[in-house]
Every structure is written in C-alpha cells, then in structure tokens.
Design brief:
five-stranded parallel beta sheet, six-stranded parallel beta sheet, globular
Amino acid sequence: MRAGSGCPGDKAHGPVPHTGCMPKRATPQSWLCDMDGVLVHEGIMVPGADRFVALLAEKGRSFLVLTNNSMFTPRDLCDRLAQSGLVIPEASLWTSALATAQFLDSQRPNGKAYVIGEAGLTTALHDIGYVLTDRHPSTSCSRDEDLQLRGHHQGHPAGGRRGPLHRHQPRPGRPEPQGILPACGSVAALISHATGVAPYFVGKPNSLMVREGLNTLGAHSESTVMVGDRMDTDVVAGIEAGLQTILVLSGVTAKEQIDRFPYRPSRVIDSVADLIGELEDLEALQ
C-alpha cells in the first residue's frame, strides 16, 4: 500500500472498513474485471479505464474482463471496446457464453443443444463440438429477448422432454437507456414455469464463472481481485470464490445501496481511475 494513503495497517485500527484499503493478503497478481459499469458505461469508456488496463499489462498482471453479456463473441467485443478506446486482447475476454460452453463440455461433452441466443452463445457451443438442433437435444441454453422471436413459436423441445435448462445469468431485468428490459432470468422463469424444469445459471453471481476464469488464468484466489459495479453479481461471486473484491461506483450501484446487502466488498472506490496510482507503484513482474 502506498505511503500516506491513510489506510489502517494494524490491529489497533480494528476491522478494515469496506470503504478502506485491502485486507492484508498477498499482493494482487491477477485481476478479474466486470466490463459494463467498470470499463465502459452505456458504450462510453469510463475515464481512466484505458490507463488501468494498460498498467495491468505493463506490470505483468494477468487479467480477464468478465461479462454476463452472451450476445457477442470475444472478437466482436474486442472491436466494440476498441471503438470506445479500450485495447483488450480477445484472449482476455471471458463471457458467460464461454463459461456456459466450458461447463457443458465438462458435463455433457459432444452433446446437442436447443439454443435461444445469438452469435456469442452459438459460436461458443460450436467451438466445443456441440450440435445445435431442435430435434432431441440433450440440453437447452438461452439468453433474453430472443425468446419472443423464436421460443414462443417453436416451443421448448428440451423442456418438453424434461431435459436440463442452462442459462448464462439469472438477472430478471437489465438497465437500458429506454428503461429496464427483460433479461435472462425473466425468460428462465417463463420456461421453468411452463415446463416444470428448474434452470441452472452459469454466469455471475454463480462463482463457477469466476473459478473458471481463475483456471483460465492459472491464478489463485488468494492473490486475485474481482472488480465490479454490482453487489448482487460481481461482489458476491468474488466473495464466494474467495477473492478480494472492489466495488466501483461508476456503474449501477450507489454508495447508499451497499448497506442493503448482508455482505461487503473489500473496498469501495469511485472508479478504476482510483487504482491507477497504486498500480503505478507496483514493480513489474517478469
């Protein structure tokens, strides 16, 4: 910790407040960062996010950008982020679609899936050798608003056969400029109610997505930080995976909302720009 930061450094100060510095743990070697609300907000780069990402690379810190958005492939996201001014390698993007595909590959390799989704999800499933079909699928995967385009008309063959339902994230609604729109959790509830089959959510807040990210990096939870803007997805997933957690206030969560939750982040900051000075003080890893 940098000199003069004013952070408590011994037991005399009592418990570290959630708005203070990190508890005494190993110096972070790896970073997991949410995308929306942390690096970009409504398609615009959060000020300082480009320098933050550049410093992680300069200092030799491995990192992944996590997102529950399964619409786009990592290549597509690279391009979208570049247009916002962020240069992030394709290999450093970890989507809920990739996490879902990896989970299915470990549970039901070379399977068949009935999919309600877009390129991010279908590409990830194709890449693990899955066949996408509405004839005798072994599982079902979906995201959000695509259901109204196809699901209502075609029914749900996997659900009709009492097959498992896999969803990338449980959030019932997602904030958009025009208001709150239905998200994957709403679709899952509709299908579950109609079929009697409970879904399994792979994306955040399931810590499985975080742990898969750690395995992808070859990182350890003790020396990894999770940075996010949502208490109910990013922070709780990080806590349950045993990570240090940082809540940024540049997204959807306001400071006064933190006390509504029964858990606390390790630290609360305004944005990733507040981390630049600390990263600059770190020695580069070989």
